[in-house]
Design a protein that fits this description.
It contains two helices and nine strands. By secondary structure, it is of the alpha+beta class.
Length: about 140
């Protein structure tokens, strides 16, 4: 009987600790507005920085734009620098969610601040509004 009680107590303790170690993520949407200004080499803009809490892709959705034009998005650190690997996603369609892989969490751990960098080669400029989050799940 004592063996069973000790075994049950140890199992309950392990299961209890397992649920405590779960981390929150930061998947709530925040609005962004990208104003790509006219220029010969195009334009680069950034979202504000937000903390990243897991290894999932960042999420971005364009909801409106001033003209039909795509832009490239990637995830960068709070100082606008790239991580150890950089993936680029072409944001083309409105109201379609795009997942942007990144190594923010892997390179710097829980709570690293990230931004989404938007770039276009369009020389005339345009505006895009939408939502984004640093963690997609």
């Amino acid at each position: 009987m004592k063996k069973w009680m000790v075994s049950t107590a140890i199992t309950a303790g392990i299961l209890g600790v397992g649920t405590i170690t779960a981390f929150a993520n930061n998947h709530g949407d925040t609005t962004y507005s990208f104003n790509f200004t006219p220029g010969i080499t195009g334009s680069t803009v950034y979202t504000s920085a937000r903390p990243k809490y897991d290894a999932s892709s960042a999420y971005m959705m364009a909801q409106s734009r001033s003209k039909t034009q795509t832009y490239t998005a990637s995830v960068v650190n709070a100082s606008n620098g790239n991580f150890s690997q950089t993936w680029y996603v072409d944001i083309q369609s409105l109201n379609h969610g795009y997942y942007i892989p990144n190594n923010g969490y892997e390179d710097h751990g829980y709570g690293v601040n990230v931004k989404i960098k938007g770039h276009t080669g369009d020389m005339l400029g345009f505006r895009v509004d939408g939502v984004w989050s640093p963690d997609s799940v």
